[in-house]
């Protein structure tokens, strides 16, 4: 094998730890450093040979790192970090605030292009693999309808929202796709589905004994934007049960396009892509690592600037050569 | 909209007719000519404005056609036609003899590159969309197992084989994936599956009254390569039932990767892509047409030679601009 791809991780939360684990499954890659805003001494990373450094040290590592994988959050970290780091590094991020992607793309593209760096933004599964499948299915079946269902899985935003309710000590919210709706789509009915017909919101809560549970339920179920348009279930459990049963981060979902072909649109055609994930952050991390390989190669070829899943040929993600891919996988 | 993409169809069987129908769903495309080995006068095409011409006339249309979509068979047509036409046209084909793809790619690539043309080969769903998903899922989850199931659908090769059996007047063979096997894969069991555990072969036959049916059944069930390794069902039906019930060409299948992530591989992750098609040829045609758009654009950018689904960025398949795709679909 040629030289390994030298990777840096920025941010060592669930996503950063997932990237670290994914690198061990990719022998063409090497983790050289983890950058953190915390005290570097306070971090215990699994890769013994990787350096742990404060974020402020990153610039000094410009010649030692081929790709930086940014593992911060979309709300405040990535909008600042991605353009800043793209001036000195090839980067991959999982920016997932859908409405602001065009702005984020423009900010990163400008810096990366000027500095001859390559940046893959909004990588993961949604945005990411789900986006690819929505786009691909729509291009193949122009006449048809798209359906995206999420879950069963933990929604971080909704879990945060219920934890802000008075009297909630611990709380988690699972988004559950409604099977009846999925079945109607799969049968080719092309239904028009209201928000509450697609997903159910299932909450598990450890409550403060002193607060009226009925009030907690009411406040959650009527919360605008988060819960008021959904059927919401609230279950109170003990702290012990919460810690034992709700410490995982499963997720997944379905992208379905139901289309029609033929001169009179007489044949139904169904394209479905689905994920069933036991660990949402580890899966997202695995996607980030595959795209880090692509970013490294694109940059070696002089393809600079910001890229998304729509722009990068799939062959760039694989350790196999194009000839091997044609022989073994086509 | 800018100028339309001018398309020619080579071969007017099920696939060619499917391409013609698909073009009507893509307003940026225009069917200008259909080329056939038959007497052009004998063909009745749906597009009134399209010319119908003998294959030998194709070369004269070099300046009038942006992309030729080759709708012949992989056994004898495409190995000759694709390299020949790639000298004068951008082409798309659905070459599907998996074992000979590297050779076909090399033959087409050589001619296309020298002549400044772009050729997308082995486009469709397998090879094609299934290949993309096998590759993508393997790159994301390096530790894991791949499973491809086909059906329920008509296998042309197996139907041809049973029609060669003495006493078979009409015959069709459906490949049926075995649900129990799919369920085991979906549960993350990572089973090792024997050939007969994955697919069932279901045959419907109109028999010559004078031939012993038991002999027909025996000959089919023991046919090497085609049936001997499978559980095979043979049902005799009337010619009337055959014509009424078995005149469709449904197909589909599943590509599943079951992988593990985490430092100890402790989390199961499942990626599944599936198709449920009422018309196999029309769906394949729809994929060919989307890739015709990509080939046209690649050639305009000077990206010449042979390409596969692994090489072409998805954005090239869409009528939307990259900025629109990022805004609407990412």
**Total number of helical segments of chain A?**
11
Which sequence of SSEs, written as H and E, runs from N to C of chain A?
A: EHEEEHEHEHEEHEHHEHEHEEHEH
Cα shape of chain A: globular
The whole-angstrom Rg of chain A is 22 Å
- The helix content of chain A is 25-40%
Strand content of chain A: 25-35%
Largest interface pair: A-B, 70 and 70 residues
Provide structural commentary.
Two copies of one chain form a homodimer. The first copy, chain A, is of the alpha/beta class and 330 residues long. Helix content of chain A is 33%, strand content 26%. Chain A has eleven helices and 14 strands. Chain A has helices at 14-23, 77-85, 101-114, 129-140, 156-163, 179-186, 195-198, 213-221, 239-245, 280-300, 322-328, and strands at residues 5-10, 29-36, 51-54, 67-70, 90-92, 118-120, 144-150, 153-154, 168-177, 199-207, 231-236, 251-261, 267-277, 305-307. In chain A, strands 3-2-1-4-5-6-14 form a seven-stranded parallel β-sheet, with helices on both faces. The first copy, chain A, has a four-stranded mixed β-sheet with strand order 8-9-10-11. In chain A, helix 3 (101-114) links the parallel strand 5 and strand 6 (118-120). In chain A, helix 2 (77-85) runs parallel beside helix 3. The longest helix of chain A has 21 residues, at 280-300. Chain A is globular, with a radius of gyration of 22 Å. The model of chain A has no long low-confidence stretch (mean pLDDT 95). At the A-B interface, helix 1, helix 3, helix 4, strand 13 and helix 10 of A face helix 1, helix 3, helix 4, strand 13 and helix 10 of B.
């Amino acid at each position: 094998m040629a030289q390994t791809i030298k990777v840096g991780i920025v941010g060592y939360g669930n996503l950063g730890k997932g990237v670290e684990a994914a690198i061990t499954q990719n022998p063409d890659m090497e983790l050289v450093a983890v950058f953190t805003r915390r005290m570097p001494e306070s971090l215990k990373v699994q890769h013994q040979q990787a350096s742990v450094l404060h974020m402020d040290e990153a610039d000094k590592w410009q010649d030692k790192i081929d790709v930086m994988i940014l593992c911060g959050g979309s709300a405040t970290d990535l909008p600042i970090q991605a353009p800043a780091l793209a001036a000195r590094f090839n980067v991959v991020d999982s920016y997932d605030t859908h409405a602001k992607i065009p702005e984020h793309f423009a900010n990163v593209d400008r810096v990366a292009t000027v500095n001859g760096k390559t940046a893959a933004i909004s990588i993961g599964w949604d945005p990411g693999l789900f986006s690819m499948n929505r786009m691909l299915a729509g291009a193949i079946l122009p006449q048809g309808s798209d359906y995206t269902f999420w879950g069963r899985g933990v929604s971080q935003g909704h879990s945060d929202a219920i934890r802000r309710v008075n009297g909630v000590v611990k709380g988690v919210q699972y988004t559950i796709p409604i099977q009846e709706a999925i079945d109607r789509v799969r049968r080719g009915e092309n239904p028009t589905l209201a928000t509450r017909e697609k997903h159910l919101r299932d909450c598990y809560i450890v409550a403060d004994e002193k607060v009226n549970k009925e009030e907690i339920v009411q406040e959650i179920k009527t919360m605008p934007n988060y819960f008021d348009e959904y059927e919401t279930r609230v279950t109170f459990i003990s702290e012990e049960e919460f810690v034992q049963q709700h410490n995982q981060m499963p997720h997944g979902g379905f992208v379905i396009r139901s289309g029609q072909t033929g001169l009179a649109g007489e044949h139904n055609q169904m394209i479905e892509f689905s994920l069933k994930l036991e660990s949402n952050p580890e899966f997202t991390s695995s996607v980030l690592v595959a795209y880090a390989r692509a970013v490294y190669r694109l940059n070696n070829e002089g393809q600079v600037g910001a890229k998304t899943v729509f722009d990068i040929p799939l062959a760039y993600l694989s350790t196999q050569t194009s000839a091997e891919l044609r022989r073994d996988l086509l």
